[in-house]
């Protein structure tokens, strides 16, 4: 494979902070080169240099063997280099066609021609999206297709994907992988940045691991294992990422749902969680896992069946009722549902239980708030410049810690976490795992929903498996395996097990 671009001895400093320290990196025609490392390792900074968004402090870039510089992103795009960031750079109030050709719209526009070109580009990717439709009305997966089509609207030689599947369903992720495979077959060089190591092993030809602003090494994917990659990134093995499980002795039952049905999403689901227990909920995306948590949290409502909390039957009209009953939910999409991004950390951390930081008249006690949030931040090892900083300024792992801080502060008895480490780097995952185990050690009943099987196996005292809205079975630690969880997820229960209780 011919080399397209090479970065040599790249450094980047911001004041006294050295973000990159002499990094070498290259991209070849027709390959997927994965770039992985913890948050802050320098991956995005390196790619911003490649895409002309920021200049290097030193080092050189060679394109087709010739030394070059990119003054700005437009110059990089003119040379065939496109960056598709995790936060998509689209104009939501403009149409699909306008977004695709935004940088080259003529003074007099032939809308019919523009939309025809847009439709052709999108159909090349295997999608049928109306070119006249407003981008802001599209699902995230389709917005990403528009971003890719935008890159392909001019001759492209290198495309950088930064965490492209962090907000995609499994089905949409598979469609993205097919697009990447087609691009690779046409000779395009792909740089793929992801925290999801199983994806990296599925699609990458080579892997460069970064740590603390340096490239630890570049390897053929066949030379690596997930365990070795994690050692290179954080200095310890996968097994060491998880805290020790508890004693296996649990307290009284905190929550039980019996024969719960809700529309077509849930069918006769029964489960229970006890104090001090971490119960996993596995299965394929769309199997009903999230709906179980929403039901317990009062966000969805029962058609039939019952919910019992601390021995008492409940009928929650809203999540407010569930919070009052001591239930917390860390949602799958923290940015949309878990935090208010433009509000300070201190506001987000206390919003689920304001009674401890307001007086009898309802006025905020600022000093009490600062003391509470400072203490929470210390206990969760929250890394931020100030508790007044907006949550949007934090890394994914620290944003997730703010969501956890909210429920630590609320001090409920039941905590549910839906994809708790999505979009979080490996080092921060380990810290979040320790916090989840601490909740259980403090006597909380914990439900963990995850698409990462190793996460369920490493964290949970038992794992329940969902499939097509049904509870298909339960695994004890001795039975944990990828084969067992997928077998349950993809196999209907026999009639003689229909009435069994998974509690």
Secondary-structure map with pairings?
Layout: E1 3-14, E2 17-28, E3 32-36, H1 43-50, E4 58-63, E5 66-68, H2 73-78, E6 81-84, H3 96-100, H4 111-124, H5 140-152, E7 158-162, H6 170-185, E8 189-193, H7 197-203, E9 206-211, E10 214-220, H8 226-234, E11 253-262, E12 266-274, E13 278-283, H9 289-296, E14 304-309, E15 312-314, H10 319-324, E16 327-330, H11 334-338, H12 345-350, H13 366-379, H14 396-410, E17 414-418, H15 426-441, E18 445-449, H16 453-459, E19 462-467, E20 470-475, H17 482-489
Work out the radius of gyration: 24 Å
Strand content: 15-25%
Mean pLDDT: 87
Q: Say what oligomer this is.
A: single chain
Distance between the termini: 55 Å
Q: How would a textbook summarize the main sheet?
A: 6 strands, mixed
Alpha plus pi helix count: 17
- Anisotropy-based shape: globular
Helix content: 25-40%
Strand order of the largest sheet: 6-7-8-3-9-10
